[in-house]
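Q: Could you fold this chain for me?
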Amino acid sequence: MVKPLAFKGDKKSKKRKHANPDGLENGDGTFTALVTSNAAAPTTEEDDSWVTAEAPTDITGPIIFALPSTIPACIATDANGKVFTSELENIVEKDLLTAEPHDVRQVWVANRVAGTESISFKGHHGRYLGCDSIGILSATREAISPEESFICISSPDIPGTFNIQTAREKFLTINEPVSTKPESNSGCELRGDAETVSFNTTFRIRMQARFKPKLKANKESKAREKISRKELEDVVGRRLEDDEVRRLKKARREGDYHETILDVRVKGKHDKFAS
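A: Sure. Below is the predicted structure, expressed as structure tokens.
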């Protein structure tokens, strides 16, 4: 089931409390519960924290484009498909590596365009980010054409940043007029017609951790490794030495678990006959 986006500062909804038939009535209409339960640890699918995309293959799911503007900002769209710069509020000391969205208009959902290396970016209103022939950005189309397809190229100068290339081999860029007030980014202009890469075309892409392949693989690997000594001994059919437990857990993590189980069983039989 797809979960709605959650932002920092959002109030968590409280479930309505019901009288507990197994509790003790205090005489004032309240109850003292007799049973408590421990909350389950968050799983990979529930991880809504935001991390930085480090490679083009990372870019999938909800993302924000963090811009190299004087005032930290990102690309946003309104309900009519107008694309604009939106100031980032959830950020620590103006460090784009800590940026998170506070407004759904700042969030885009990245998906691979089938059969290509291009990526599409769908806005909160169900329409795709696009760039026309003269470099104007908008988000008004409900279907993907070449104008709604972008290639994210890793920047050779700043690790973890990208140059976003359009179908016309131009780059998304931000222009800050000299007259822009230091306390505002209202004068920033987003375009898609930069001929060459520069500092102004170098964006950071922040994404939800649960969609990042490397983090997802690490969490799945740890989940596979979680097996008790008793469970391993039940499978092998005898008591195991510490080094055998470590070997089996490693094999479970790396994918050769069943072959290692057979090896440990054979070793146990040899040891039995040798004694």
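A (continued): The radius of gyration is 26 Å.
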